[in-house]
Amino acid sequence: MSPQGQPHWKKLFSASHFAIGTLLIVPNDMVRNMVGEEILTNREVVMGPRVMSFNLLEKILSGELGPAPIDGLLRLMALNAAAPDVWEPLGLPGHLEPARVIELADQLGDGLDRLRLAGVSWETLEGLEPRELSAALAAIGRRYEAWLGDRDDQFSRRRKLLEALRGGHQFDALAEIESVHCHHSSRLSPFEAELLKALAARYRVNLRLSAPRWLLEENIPPGTGYHRLRLVRDLEGSQIPGLDLTWADPQKPDRPEVPEALRYASENLFGPQPQGPAPDPAGVLSILAVPTRYHEVEEVGRKIKALLVGGIPSHRLAIAVPTLSLWLPSILDVARRFGLSLRYRRGIPLSSYPPVSALLDLVSLWDSNWELTRILKILESPYFEFGLDGLLRPFLHEIGISDERAAGGFKANFDKISDPVLREKLKPTYLAVGRLKQAAMNLSSAKTWKSFRDRLQSILRGFGWPGRVLAEPQGRGYEHEFWLRTSTDSISVERMANLLHRLFDALTVSQHAPPVSLASFKLWLHRTMSETAMEEHGGSEMGVKVLNYFDLHGAFFEALFLMGLNDKVFPSAQAEGCWWPEELVQSLATTSLGRRLWSNAAENYQREEDIVAQALSQAKRVVISYQTSTEDQRPALPSAIVESLIDLWPDGVLKAERPGWPLPPPADRVCDAGELWLNLAVNHPAQSAPEIFKRLSRRPMEEAEGLWASIPTRRKSLNLLQERLSPQLLEAWLGTLPQYLGRPLATVRPLVGFSECPRRFWYQEILSVAAWPGTMETWSGRAQGEVIHQTLEKFLGPLVSHETRDFGASRLKYIYWERVHRHFCSRPVGRRPVYSAISKKLEASLMAWVERHKDLAKVNVAALEWSFGNSQGHDAPPYMVDSPSGAFFLTGRVDRIDWEGGHVVVRDYKTNRGLMYESGGQRPKEGLRPSWHYPMILYALAAGQHFKAEPQAVIEFVDPREGEDQLGIEMGEPAEFSQLWEELMKGELGGPSDESHCQYCQYTRLCRPRSSAGSEEANDSQS
To answer: Which parts of 801-898 fold into alpha helices (H)?
Structure first.
């Protein structure tokens, strides 16, 4: 990058190889990681500056002063006990819900801490209007300080830190620092401004801020407004010799890579008059108007997927939303569907993790009226073990309403059942509910929090929570899916266990602890779990950033998606400390401080406007979106920011795009073919065949991940399948196949699918409905297979050219981790802990494989990744099969071919011996072909024809679960493929070859095969 294209900090330090005496302060840890990465990749800087965020610097310096801050739970309990003293002065009712009391306690603590940090004495506070409230607050403040004693809370530590810096305290963390630079900022908090002034008393502090030119020329009276220049004006007037304040020159920007249209929008969005001509926003700034929040997330996910496929690294993309808690469920669902790897700036709330959520649901059930839905949620949860077999819902509905408010509840309804057979069926479920109720009574009778804790621990142990998520996998016999679940859930369970210990310690120790009850425990448990977040990817910065708007400060991205810009959503116009009367706020500002401790609604609104304006210059491409309707289907208006942005350009230049829902989006914007088909499913498939295949012939992605979430609501609009495929559909499907010598060219997959189940062939091949991909939190099996195949291809490559190489474990391990790293950097991988665990497991499998093959150097390898097809990239032409309806051709790829005793041996790698069994864990029935039979026969026939030798076929297991590590395949004849093709051309849609497979079929939720009774209702309930 040329010097003109360097960030400002890089210009400062690129002239010096060593900048270890420099401290660079950035707005937050995300920017710190970005700057640190750039410094490490800058060859001109050998040892770069120390880079810290304001939070990290505060934490390190406060840690040197000690002691550790008081536990936040103890502090909140003390404030919660004091909050009722201000109810009457505030005009609140005499009794409030406990959750509302905690909310008020939070705001009370915030206000007291602001007063203490600002140095306002309780005597001064007592003399302010309104007197009754001021007196109550002063009394609480004195008790609060007396309770704190020599213990520190956050604001006490901040005050102590500022005093230590001004007093010349020697901090170890600043021992070698000579100068301090604060860049990447456009605004400062009051504490950040005070911290910089305290640092400037000893060090040369260079503060560089950015703001539009018109804003710098505004006349802002001292002490007024939250405006981002207010504190800067205070800094300018402080006249501290060590503080150098400079402004970024709009004509020579720090980030020249920002497109002119975005720079123009950022500079002029809220200015009095736009300066200069408006650049063309095409390609760099767009606005989306979508029906609902889920549509909004889905459309953004689709655009992000396209950018990732285009080669942009995931960590260079970001999503910003007003409130993570509201958008998080939709973001998680779309990310799983589209296979997006995400990184949450503030982490994911611990309460969102399944085992934690299961325990929260259990506690909520205990403190409820025992509604049927709550009971079902617990009994059906995989994180509890009640020993129940079969379907619970029909049994529980036989009993009827379980709500304690209705006619005696669960027991009374059970006693009414006279049928002895039905009673016997229902008895295990009845006893399980009885265990749940007995547990609630045991907890409710506890007299102390210590006995409550002991009883809860015993109850959870008896209920089996958290299931088997903490069990360690033993040997090679464990189920792969179970192990993945273990590695994802155990981390959240461990974190929750630590928080439970912390909560009970606080409840036991605190003199302000709430009374012992289930309701109190539920309230404080939910509070503790919801305010705790877990980072999914450890220290890695990979993944699309998911941010709160306030996290954007100072960061820069390739593309930034600003979501939720609706009227009254963002800007929200909600004042901080809204229950502190304006009379008191004004009294403090005019008589004691000369400035406001809280912002009013207008000032908060202006701050949020500034955040969006600044964000427009923090990416090379910005997409803004808003919703046109609320969750209850009422009209919703865009934010005033959107309207102001559109007004910067002449009419029609910048306008909101409105993707068409529920009509199908264009083919190049759908996630996969299945999504397109589902949007067209209201028509009979045969009638819409031309349009379906016209679009499916331009599939945007090879690996489709369908919209199965919408299938249950759309299923009733589908017609039952006919007994035979229409000639139009067969002809249309054949038209999508490539041609070779004027005849169809296909893979063996459709033939295999048709042989196992013609109906599955209908969904998979004719309609191209992608199967439910499963959770995207894990590293997909397909991706794992790609890495294994690429590793073995490179490792065994020298055998083809007869090179002498090392075929030991160390070389194989090096090649493997090289491929893993490439995959990690270029593809979404889901949750980092799961990905790491799977990577280590695959490594162990490869090490075991190379240990079993110590004589690899003696193997006569004929080819690796050998393919036959119709292009120049294939090693041989496609394999031709004669059939009564005319010849057709098959194509494929072989992992490895060896020469052994005059035979060619086709080898196909599989990760384990699971293929020895069908999905249900049983060996194939006699006369039925397993799914791998036809592909292996085809590969062997094609290889034998090309190499002119007798073929053999072998499946080689990289990670065998039992027995030998390879399986020989009995050879077949070309006539088998001819027979399958003829059956397919008849178009008959019979049932599966083995109906027991239906319960494991990936299309079970969509398929409605006719039952023996012919009841559509029965089929619906089974689905």
So the answer is: 809-826, 832-852
